[in-house]
Amino acid sequence: MTGRLPILLSACAVTVATAGCSFHGVNSLPLPGTVGHGPGSVTYHVELADVGTLESNSPVMLGDVVVGSVGKMSVDGWHANVEVSVKPGVVIPANAVATVGQTSLLGSMHLALDPLPGQPAQGHLSPGTTIRLNSSSTYPSTEQTLSALSALINGGGVTQIGDVIHNASAMLSGHEDRVRDLLNRLNDVAGMLADQRDSVVDTLDQIDRLSTTLASRTDVIDRALREIPPALDVLIKERPRITEALDRLHIFSDTATDLIHDTQDDLVRNLRNLEPTVKAIADIGPDLDKVLAYTTTFPFTQSVIDRGVRGDYLNLYIVMDLTIPRLKRTMFRGTRWGDVNAALVPAPGDPWNLNYTYQPLSVGVTPPPPADPAPPTGTVDPQTAQMPTVSEPVVPVTPPLMPGTAASAPPTPGQLFAGPYPGNPASASPTGGP
C-alpha cells in the first residue's frame, strides 16, 4: 500500500503536466452561457485570411442577431480555419459570406454570416460546410483606422488644406457673380442630363453595339486602311481637276439659281396649269396600268394570250386596209374627215393638186348636181385634152395629165408650181380623193 502511493502520485503528476502543456487558457474552453454549444447545435467551418482580434467564444451573428459562437481556431497554411457552432433551428443562407467585424469601440469582435448587401438570402447552408476564402473578409479594426488617419494627417498633406482654402478664396474674391452664374449653368446642364438620361443610356448602348460591330469587322477595317492611302494619292493627283469641277459647279449653281429666280413665276404658273392634266392622269391611274399592259400585247389582250398561246410564240397573219375610202367608211366615220364629199388637200406633185384652189373664197359655189345628169356625149382622150395654161411656179415633178386636159409647155427652170391653175373653175375640182 505504501509502495503504490508514490507510483500513483507520479502518474497524476505526469497527467497534470501533460494536460497543462496543451491548455490555452480559460477562453479556449466553452464558457457557460455562450450560444450554440447546446445539444443539437450545428457546426460550420470558415476560412479567414485575417482574424484580427477574434477569439474563441466570440459571438456569431446573423442579421445583427447572435445565433452562435466561435469555437476552435487553427492555422492552415497562410489562413486561419475557424470552427463555428450555431444553435439548432437557425438557417444559414447558402449564399452567406463570413465577415469579421468589431462589435464595439472597446475591441469586441464578432463573426457575421450574412448575404452580400442588396442580395436576398437563398437556400440553406448544409451542416459541416466550409466557407472558403473567396467568401470571407475582415473589416478594419479601430487601431487600423486610427493609424491610417494619423498617417493622413501627419504626412498626407492635410496641413496644406488651409493654404488651399486661402488660395481658392483669393481666386474667387471679386468673381462671386460669375461663379454663381457658372454654378447655375452647371446645375442646368446637370438637370438637362438627368432629363435626357434615357437618351444618354440609349446612345451608350448604340455606341456599344457599334464598337461590337467594328470589333467583328477588323479584317475589313485593316483592308480599308491598306487601300485608302492609294485612293487618297489618286485624289491628291486629281485635286486640280476636282477644284476646277467644283468651281464650274459653283458657276452652274449660280446660273441655275438666277434662272430659277427669273422663271419662278412662269414655273409656278406652268405647274398650276399642269394640275388638271396631272389630276386627269391620276384619275385614270387604276386603268393606266391596263392600257400600258395592253400596249405590250397589242393587238391582243393578256387574257387572249394566256388562253390562246400555248407555246413560246404565236403566228399572226393580218391584212390591213388603210386606204382613204376604207378609213372614211370606218375609223373616220362621223367626223369631218369621214365626209365623202370633202375635198382633201393634195400634196405638191399630187395629180389632184392641179385642180385644187388655195383661195376657196375667190371661186363660185359649186351648184348642186342635176337630178338626172345627162350622159356624156363623147369620150375625151386624155392624151389630146387641152391642159390649162400654167402661170404659177411649177413643182419639179410634173403631175400626170388629168382627164379632159391637154399637155402644155414644160415649166421654166427655177419655177416652183404650187397651184392652182388660173381659169380653172371650182366646179371642176374633184369631190373626193383616192
What does this protein structure show overall?
Helix content is 40%, strand content 11%. Strands 7-1-4-3-2-6-5-8 form an eight-stranded mixed sheet, with no helix packed on it. The model is unreliable at 16-20, 392-402, 407-411 and 413-434 (pLDDT under 50). The protein contains eleven helices and eight strands. The chain is of the alpha/beta class. Among the domains are: 26-142, no CATH class; 203-262; 266-318, no CATH class; 328-361 and 416-434, no CATH class.
In summary, what is this structure?
The chain is an alpha/beta fold. The chain is built from eleven helices and eight strands. Among the domains are: 117 residues, no CATH class; 60 residues; 53 residues, no CATH class; 53 residues, no CATH class.
Rg calculated over all Cα atoms = 60 Å
Average pLDDT score: 77
Gap from first CA to last CA:
174 Å
Please bin the fraction of helical residues.
Answer: 25-40%
Largest sheet properties? 8 strands, mixed
Structural class, by secondary structure, is alpha/beta
What is the overall number of helices?
A: 11
What attributes does this structure have?
40% helix; eight-stranded mixed beta sheet; 11 helices; alpha/beta; 434 residues; disordered C terminus
Q: Layout of SSEs?
A:
Layout: H1 4-21, E1 42-48, E2 59-61, E3 66-76, E4 79-86, E5 97-102, E6 109-114, E7 130-131, E8 136-138, H2 142-155, H3 161-172, H4 176-195, H5 197-216, H6 218-237, H7 239-262, H8 264-283, H9 285-296, H10 302-308, H11 324-329
Parallel strand pairs: 1-7, 2-6, 5-8
Antiparallel strand pairs: 1-4, 2-3, 3-4, 5-6
